[in-house]
């Protein structure tokens, strides 16, 4: 069982504002009392906290739908909305942007950057987008294909567009930009594929690049980059060894970027190493700066100020990209300006913002890699058993982490941080015996063929039941949980805390819930009919408080299908709530998904085995463990697998390229494709037989 949990979770593991009026010249100085939500995390402190209190513990039971809007895609919705100037702006899957009247819900405009479908292949974790930024009369967002685009907030027309990445490399953008002192700051993703991370700043008016900071050193054979990070090249380069990292090294800044007004510092969260395997990447030596680090930069110049590396020699996809919250806490009788983060590795970090030195770092749930800090040091002791370069290791958490991008929230009223966690996440990591860089796919250096589910559906169900979540109310001063709500599933949504004493959070099984911020008691629930993973926000317009959230399940794919076997693919929606809201959104249609009747004779076991391994190495990261799907169609139910010609036209000839299913002609032979088809038929037969026996019971 352990082995399966290991491999299963490996899978899980692999899974890897407003029209600012001219009078609002300094958006970064947005007052906390504003009824708007101008920055991704609410204000520049990014606390995901609303000071509004019209909706309170005593009346939240009257909360109802004010209006909603249904989008044109059933892929994941991860955006935090922005509200300013009476408008609400959201981005959706495929990097589209929509602007609505925040009161009436009238669609004002939408913009489609027309990202090519085949770019989906280079997105580890769905074609998502986590939001726009707004300043003055401009809306900024990153497109999946690496463009940073400025739109006119009034009309939605493009003002400028710049390519921020090398289009020949598998970079993507899913994170939201931030606007700081006239510059738009944007990062990128792609560490699973093999890219070199960096963050860039562009002039908000012209789109001209102002500076760039690389988080990983350049190839020693090439000179300095001519970038803001050049002075740190010797410091970084001394911590990398061998040549395994030369296809990039990872360290992408794919989500959190926070601006500190008080110290005029920009904090970037740096991602995992590429390949994951430290042995392959760096001969198992060196810290590999700045992987898994928080780095403070001067926002005007990009110059380095300080860094704190959470995981020297990162090997488990432990990113430091999760959302960062700025606050002033009273600790030991002293007022401390701190940055708080719970990265994938599971520790709650409270870090002095001025110096970058931790104040405390405490596991939120038990994690196996962490053996404490040596006296006088904030360099963690890592359990040697967690390394897997010479074989395999079962490690908690796994690649999806204790906490990923789903934003946590801090309430200055309660003093608590509300963290959406994956409560018992773990993964088996197995090193590849031989690693060869693949320019057309994942390059984690871990063996995907070891990632599989058991055949017995009862055991799959048991494993799925073990993957639970929790909402933890954490006291960052006392370093302990004040309350915890256990949840049936992992991948619960981002969090909003309000001055009304409420905490809002969605669930992957389609509920939107309000809890009492002081006790965790559930006070209200709305059935959304679609999984909610994005963070809610709150805003006020004409004396009315609203709560808004994007509904639409998606994100990292591998372990999704078997954990949510009943899930249907449903169109994303923007949901807006207010007291006594009486709107109703139509129920989603239920689409029958009968099991296929496979009439072809069963292939020999050897062929199925080849098909299984070929599937694991080429298809698994998008189509899921056991081909169960989740975000993408369940291939066990796809009629394409019953027709050799159709299947080949898709897999080898790229018939569905516009939807992200590229041709695999560069990797697969006709025989490979046919073996995969036979494996999928085998899986379809198992499904039909399981469903038949379930009906008979
Ligand atoms: Ca990653």
Q: Explain this structure to me?
A:
- The protein is of the alpha+beta class.
- It has 2 domains: 19-579, Quinoprotein alcohol dehydrogenase-like superfamily (Methanol Dehydrogenase, Chain A, 8 Propeller); 605-696, Cytochrome Bc1 Complex, Chain D, domain 2.
- It has 9 helices and 35 strands.
- The longest helix has 27 residues, at 670-696.
- Calcium ion (CA) binds next to loops.
- Residues 16, 191-192, 271-272, 317, 319 line the site of calcium ion (CA).
Brief rundown of the structure:
By secondary structure, this protein is of the alpha+beta class. Helix content is 13%, strand content 27%. Calcium ion binds next to loops.
């Amino acid at each position: 069982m352990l082995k399966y949990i290991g491999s299963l979770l490996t899978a899980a593991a692999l899974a890897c504002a407003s029209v600012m009026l001219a009078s609002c010249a300094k958006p970064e100085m947005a007052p906390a009392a504003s009824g708007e939500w101008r920055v991704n995390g609410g204000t520049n402190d990014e606390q995901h906290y609303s000071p509004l209190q019209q909706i309170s513990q005593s009346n939240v039971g009257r909360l109802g739908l004010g209006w909603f809007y249904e989008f044109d895609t059933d892929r994941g919705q991860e955006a935090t909305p922005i509200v300013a100037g009476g408008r609400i702006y959201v981005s959706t899957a495929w990097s589209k942007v929509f602007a609505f009247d925040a009161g009436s819900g009238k669609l004002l405009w939408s913009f489609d950057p027309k990202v090519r479908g085949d770019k989906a292949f280079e997105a580890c974790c769905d074609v998502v987008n986590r939001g726009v930024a707004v300043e003055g009369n401009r809306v900024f967002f990153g497109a999946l294909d690496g463009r940073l685009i400025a739109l006119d907030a009034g009309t939605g027309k493009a003002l400028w567009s710049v390519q921020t990445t090398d289009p020949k490399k598998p970079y993507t953008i899913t994170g939201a930009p931030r606007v700081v002192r006239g510059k738009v700051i944007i990062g990128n993703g792609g560490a699973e594929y093999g890219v070199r991370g960096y963050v860039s700043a562009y002039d908000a008016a012209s789109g001209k690049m102002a500076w760039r900071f690389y988080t990983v050193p350049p190839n020693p054979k090439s000179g300095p980059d001519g970038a803001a990070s050049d002075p740190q090249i010797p410091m970084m380069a001394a911590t990398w060894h061998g040549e395994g990292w030369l296809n990039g090294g990872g360290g992408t800044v794919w989500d959190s970027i926070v601006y500190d007004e008080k110290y005029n510092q920009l904090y970037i969260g740096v991602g995992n190493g590429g390949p994951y395997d430290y042995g392959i990447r760096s001969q198992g030596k060196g810290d590999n700066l700045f992987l898994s680090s928080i780095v403070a930069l001067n926002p005007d110049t990009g110059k380095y100020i300080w860094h704190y590396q959470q995981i020297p020699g990162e090997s488990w996809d432990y990113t430091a990209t999760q959302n960062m919250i700025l606050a002033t806490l009273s600790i030991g009788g002293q007022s401390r300006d701190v940055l708080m983060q719970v990265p994938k590795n599971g520790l709650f970090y409270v870090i002095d913002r001025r110096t970058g030195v931790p104040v405390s770092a405490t596991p939120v749930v038990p994690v196996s890699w962490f053996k404490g800090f040596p006296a006088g040091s904030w360099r963690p002791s890592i359990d040697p058993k967690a390394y897997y370069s010479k074989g395999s290791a079962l490690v908690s958490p796994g690649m999806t982490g204790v906490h990923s991008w789903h934003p946590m929230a801090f309430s200055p009223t309660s003093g608590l941080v509300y963290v959406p966690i994956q409560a018992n996440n773990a993964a088996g990591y197995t090193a590849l015996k031989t690693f060869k860089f693949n320019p057309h796919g994942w390059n984690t250096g871990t063996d995907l063929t070891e990632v599989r589910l058991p055949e017995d559906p009862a055991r799959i169900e048991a494993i799925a039941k073990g993957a639970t979540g929790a909402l933890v109310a954490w006291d960052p001063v006392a370093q302990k949980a004040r309350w915890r709500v256990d949840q049936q599933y992992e991948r619960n949504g981002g969090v909003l805390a309000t001055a009304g004493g409420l905490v809002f959070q969605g669930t992957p099984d389609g509920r939107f819930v309000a809890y009492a911020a002081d006790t965790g008691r559930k006070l209200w629930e709305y059935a959304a009919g679609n999984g909610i993973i994005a963070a809610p926000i709150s805003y006020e317009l004409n004396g009315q408080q609203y709560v808004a959230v994007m509904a639409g399940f998606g994100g990292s794919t591998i372990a999704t299908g078997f954990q949510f076997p009943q899930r249907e693919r449903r169109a994303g929606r923007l949901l807006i709530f207010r007291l006594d809201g009486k709107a109703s959104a139509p129920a989603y249609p239920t689409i029958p998904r009968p099991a296929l009747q496979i009439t072809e004779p069963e292939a020999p076991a050897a062929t199925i085995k080849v098909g299984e391994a070929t599937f694991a190495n080429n298809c698994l990261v998008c189509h899921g463990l056991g081909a169960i799907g989740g975000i993408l169609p369940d291939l066990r139910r796809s009629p394409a697998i019953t027709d050799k010609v159709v299947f080949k036209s898709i897999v080898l000839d790229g018939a569905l390229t516009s939807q992200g299913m590229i041709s695999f002609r560069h990797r697969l032979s006709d025989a490979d494709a046919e073996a995969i088809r036979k494996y999928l038929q085998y899986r379809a037969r198992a499904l039909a037989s399981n469903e038949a026996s379930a009906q008979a019971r």
